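Researcher: Please predict.
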Amino acid sequence: MATRPLGAQISAMLADRGVDVIFGIPGVHNIELYRGLEDSGLQHVLARHEQGAGFMADGYARATGRPGVAYVITGPGLTNIMTPMGQAYSDSVPLLVLSSCLNRADLGIGRGRLHEMKDQELAGATVCDWSKTAMDAGSAYGLIDRALREFETQRPRSKHIQIPIEVLEKQAEPAPVGASVVTPDMISIEAALWPILQAKRPLFVFGGGARFAAEAAREVVEKLGAATFTTYAGRGVIAPDYPLSFGSYLARPDSADVIASADLVVAVGTELSETDLWRDDLGQSGQLIRVDIDPAEMSDPGAMNILCDAGVFLRKLAEISLHHQHDTDWSVAEVAAARWRWRAATDAERPGIVPVAEALRKALPDDTVIFSDMTQFAYVAKEVWDMDAPGLWHHPCGFGTLGYALPAAIGGKVGMGDRPVVAIAGDYGFQYTIQELGTASELGLSLPILLWDNEMLKEIEASMAGSQIAPVAVKAFNPDFEKLAAAYGIAYAKPDGPEGFEAAIRAALAAQGPTIVHMTPAMLG
């Protein structure tokens, strides 16, 4: 094949490796990445801001399980996308950001160049797994293959590759044929099987790392008679009708008492972070077994640590447990009582949201993919709303970024095609990325955007009051959302009751473009 500028070869390489969509914004410094984009067959989604592009790529990756890729320019392009990079890093999302950078002679010199940064590579490294500079075509190809390979074989986290403008412009041979991904060797799990099979009150905690092993996870817990919790990211790994499921109430303070009553806890595919627990530790008193693909999670000196992919571990355990039917000390009654207590506590803490969440659940098809923002509606729903399958609800858990839902849902809808996708945002956080309504409208996406409008930063007001701080700066002027929708050429609905709400959701799902469904705390009153 003939040589072409490296920027064009990179698009062809990504297409050859299975990438089908690029999210981004062209600029004077990265236009070489766009030279061969159409010839490669890649779809390009034009965001209105690089933060939106990053969240779109994140949403695409979460929805499809494939890497999300974004193209951005030098300097502000990278700094604008660093928030999504940080979110993808904390939530284990395979996001690859490709940016330009200044020419080699200008890196770190301080010549006052356009888009100049003191150290762009280092800046990127503060929010992602690694940030590297490719000084030639071979290095660029090698780094791209390294990123894609690590997405498959390690804990998937955001990566950044930057390439000098002059290198992108230079003629280059095509990328070599991609090497097949090799599954990493896993240590033996035999030592963990015996204590699991012997436990009288075994308890499993499933995180997002177990998402692609739900079938084996369900088989294991049913055979062992084990009780279960899931993190928010792990919802749907266990079927909602499993009678010994404590659901996603892991962050309830007294869940620690339940966990302490187990004689064995097996945590699979979860780092048990602050945003999983909202306390300092899990609370177990019996033996703890941790199964994770990330070596950094193997540092608990009191645990049996197994460096292993969740699917490999669970399928092996399912194979062994086929021959062991257990009667454990867990009872359906104690699980049901705990869930009822926690549900009531959730409703009491943020009144009025549970009925709206229930109405929404009734209106949505079972396979709907949901993207939520940092908003009280999502905080409640993540606890009380069981998912039928994993990968149906995506939330910016670790980094906790406002403005996530709308662009992430756009990326998710691009990846899911005809499958229903919904965004849920609060009235304040929605305005962080409100400009991405232009992208949703431009693409003609059938996308309900559920706007939870309590006319303030309600969660912050409650936190201030709880800390004996007079609430300040928690109420902001909102636009007329109906006129905003009209300005972007999209539909708008503001239902005034349960029947109208369900009808509005169904109409939005059937629409040929986006719809803002304006929800208020009083709508079901």
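Model: Residues 180-186 have pLDDT under 50 and may be disordered.
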